[in-house]
Write a structure and sequence with these properties.
With 403 residues, the chain is an all-beta fold. Helices cover 3% and strands 45% of the residues.
Length: 403
């Protein structure tokens, strides 16, 4: 496994708009084909951007489609995708990345979701009709310097996009280019970790404040269906910010990671934000990131980081205590639950990439969870820097077809 594993979150510098894909914790091996991310400017499309940006966005949207229908029985065994392990049968759709493109594992088949090489951060809508993700593109912008001139910047601009489960072109939800009257002063924001709420709201870790304005640190903000960006008042240890938002089962609150720094150990910790009561509660001890809430709300899977590395664990949602160590190798991360809560997927390091693993969980009503089976879902490797997403894949619902 290549790349350094750091216990300290790395701050995003305002002078660096093309940083690594995960600038907080260097938990994952690097994925060479992927760039940095960050979003900005809100809109239903690129109409307010310069012509070049509009053309880039249009071309980007056309590069996303379901290459094979997700209900197809075709197994991509000899192509460029990752071959499915014999005997694997997945209910719903697991989205993973390979060489910067998104793929779906559904049933016993894999199908390519996008042909771009810069896609990541997949997130399913609650009803399985929409797949959200972040795509990046390269642009040139700048900032005024002390001499009155313009210092050029190479920008890696993120765009929040979505595509319907029944196919079609992807559409832009939120573009990360901050447009200036002088195109030489265009700039970019950061955008990470979309999580979709029960009413279609999207919580993000971003420095986009709204109306093409940067808002300082990368913190939790909530994009409403009508385009408004809400910024709840949450504790923030500058310049480390927040990451990994995850809605709870009924959408009344969300978990997120508040980053911090202490000598020799990770000071990042999971926080629970009760949206309705506007109240926060510390959840568990320090050293946990990437919360994933089980569909029944009883458990929170997370990545534990320590001097040994990173491991996947399951915490009690009631107490924040560890009830199951899923891995103990120091080389696993990025958990995600199945829609029925009976399984958990995660990534495990191999060389400079990762394997996609699944464990089947047994959790009696009055007991703690236990592992009853495990399998490597794909015979080939996947991108280590992209957290997988598992959705119900509802192709019968009325929504989810892009115009």
């Amino acid at each position: 496994m290549s790349g350094n594993r750091s216990l300290r979150p790395r701050p995003r510098l305002s002078s660096d708009r093309a940083n690594s894909s995960r600038p907080y914790h260097a938990l994952r091996p690097p994925t060479p084909t992927r760039g940095s991310r960050g979003p900005g400017w809100r809109g239903a499309g690129p109409q307010a951007a310069p012509l070049l940006a509009a053309l880039l966005l249009a071309a980007s949207a056309l590069a996303t489609f379901w290459v094979a229908n997700l209900s197809s029985s075709r197994d991509e065994t000899g192509g460029e995708g990752a071959a499915v392990t014999e005997g694997v049968l997945v209910n719903g759709s697991i989205i993973f990345a390979r060489d910067g493109a998104l793929w779906s594992l559904s049933g016993a088949s894999i199908s390519q979701v996008s042909t771009s090489a810069t896609d990541g951060e997949p997130a399913w809508s609650r009803d399985g009709t929409w797949l959200y993700f972040i795509r990046t593109r390269n642009e040139i912008g700048g900032r005024l310097n002390a001499a009155g001139g313009v210092t050029p910047y190479r920008l890696t601009v993120p765009t929040l996009m979505r595509v319907g489960a029944r196919g079609g072109d992807a559409e832009v939800v939120l573009d990360g280019l901050l447009v200036d009257q002088n195109p030489k002063l265009n700039f970019s924001t950061f955008m990470f970790d979309p999580a979709i709420g029960v009413n279609g709201e999207v919580v993000l870790a971003t420095d986009y404040k709204g109306a093409s304005q940067l808002g300082g640190d990368v913190i939790i903000r909530i994009l409403q269906p009508d385009g408004r960006m809400l910024t709840p008042v949450l504790p923030d240890e500058a310049p480390y910010g927040h990451q990994d938002p995850a809605w709870n089962a009924d959408g009344s609150g969300l978990y997120y990671v508040q980053n911090g720094q202490e000598e020799g150990v990770s000071a990042s910790r999971i926080i629970y934000f009760d949206v309705a009561a506007d109240r926060i509660v510390r959840f568990g001890a320090k050293g946990f990131i990437e919360p994933a809430v089980s569909p029944d709300g009883r458990w929170v899977a997370a990545t534990r980081i320590d001097k040994k590395g990173s491991d996947v664990v399951i915490l009690s949602a009631a107490t924040g205590e560890i009830v199951l160590e899923v891995t103990r190798t120091g080389r696993s991360w990025s958990p995600a639950w199945s829609p029925d809560g009976g399984s958990l997927i995660f990534l495990a390091a191999r060389e400079s990439a990762a394997t996609l693993q699944q464990v089947t969980i047994s959790a009696p009503p009055s007991g703690v969870p236990s592992i009853i089976a495990s399998v490597q879902l794909l015979r080939d490797l996947v991108d280590a820097g992209v957290r997988p997403a598992w959705g119900p894949l509802s192709v019968e619902a009325g929504g989810g077809v892009t115009p």
